[in-house]
Specification:
Layout (H helix, E strand, L loop, with lengths): L18 H29 L23
């Protein structure tokens, strides 16, 4: 009767059957996603960077050494 018993078949290449391979895949997927996010944010920040100093007129009475009218 041993020939009528079902045999368990394991597929080592399946994603759900081998936790070592699946956890390694998920780790590298997280690393790649994080790197893509950082690169995207860096590119966005670079494209919208501060372009220079605007000429702002500061009243003389509010400077570090104020000049008052006599």
């Amino acid at each position: 009767m041993a020939h009528n018993q079902p045999q368990e078949t394991t597929n080592d290449k399946a994603f759900g059957s081998n936790w070592v391979k699946s956890s390694r895949f998920l780790f590298y997927l997280q690393v790649a996603t994080l790197l893509a996010f950082v690169a995207g944010c860096s590119g966005y920040m670079y494209s919208n960077r501060y372009q220079g100093k605007p000429k702002v007129e500061v009243p003389e009475s509010t400077q570090y050494t104020p000049k008052y009218k006599s």
